[in-house]
Amino acid sequence: MLRFVLFTTLAALVLAELEPEPRYLEDSVEERVVGGEVAKPNSWPWQISLQYKSGSNFHHTCGGTLIKRGWVMTAAHCVDRSRTWRVVLGDHNINSNEGREQYMSVSRVHLHPRWNSNNVAGGYDIALLRLSSEATLNNYVQLGTLPPSGQILPHNNPCYITGWGRTQTGGSLSANLKQAYLPLVDYRTCSSYGWWGSTVKDTMVCAGGGKDSGCQGDSGGPLNCSVGGKWVVHGVTSFVSSSGCNAYRKPTVFTRASAYISWMNSVSALKKQNHKF
């Protein structure tokens, strides 16, 4: 699923600057989180690990946010193929069972109806997962807070990306959850020349653009932003530049959660009316 281009000529490099190629952030052997630090265990208790079954084992591929006891928000590109999925709640080290985890199978995947798997830059990179049972809320598992519909945060609003992976490109893998400080980049800046240009839509959120960024394995996870002294999940991790996860003036791009509140409400309401789901 990784979509990137190897540019070999100067002309192609210039073209890449003018028309940035987005790259998905699913897990790969190569790289995941860039920069940041290991988070305090269970300090982001709405963060989940989305895993797929291969053989007899499950493997981490994306992140996600527990938004209701039976619902997880993630990226559409993480789950737009047929696989056996599970969600792990309350996790910190994804390679060991620390006794705090809750393991849930996924009973249904709801992709946004306008999602196009061939065009991540087209937007709509959001999905809801209906869990087979409801989470037990405790000190390690909590619901993420979603923003009011349509809310847009100001430039440089403090935010953190969270996910599992490397602390630097080419560095050693760590199984512990990491966090990286990514100040928000407003749409006017992010969509300007020399940044992402027209690749970024107003239903997206940009954050970072310096040494820290999201990378493979972070897709679907939350962009946690400080609003009024509380953490609010304003983004779903979507893509980075093909030229590198922490490319200058190519901030990590997130699906803007506040643009999809009504859709998410309609999906979860539909579940209540139809017991076949």
From TrEMBL:
Residue span(s) of domain Peptidase S1 = 33-269
Q: Locate the coiled-coil region(s) and give their ranges.
A: none
Is Secreted given among the entry's keywords?
yes
Q: Where is the signal peptide?
A: 1-16
Reactions mediated catalytically: Hydrolysis of proteins, including elastin. Preferential cleavage: Ala-|-Xaa
The EC number on file is 3.4.21.36
User: Which Pfam families did the record assign?
Assistant: Trypsin
Q: Where is the protein localized?
A: Secreted
Q: Name one GO cellular component term.
A: extracellular space
GO biological process: what's one of them?
Answer: proteolysis
Picking any one GO molecular function of the record gives: metal ion binding
Gene3D superfamilies the UniProt entry points to: Trypsin-like serine proteases (2.40.10.10)
- Cofactor(s) it depends on: Ca(2+)
- The UniProt transmembrane annotation reads none
Task: Determine if Metal-binding is one of this entry's keywords.
Answer: yes
Top enzyme category: hydrolase
Classification via InterPro entries = Peptidase_S1_Elastase_sf, Peptidase_S1_PA, Peptidase_S1_PA_chymotrypsin, Peptidase_S1A, Trypsin_dom, TRYPSIN_HIS, TRYPSIN_SER
Q: What is its main location?
A: secreted
What are the protein's UniProt keywords? Calcium, Disulfide bond, Hydrolase, Metal-binding, Protease, Secreted, Serine protease, Signal
What is the protein name for this chain? pancreatic elastase
Species whose genome carries this gene: Periophthalmus magnuspinnatus
| Lineage of the organism | Eukaryota, Metazoa, Chordata, Craniata, Vertebrata
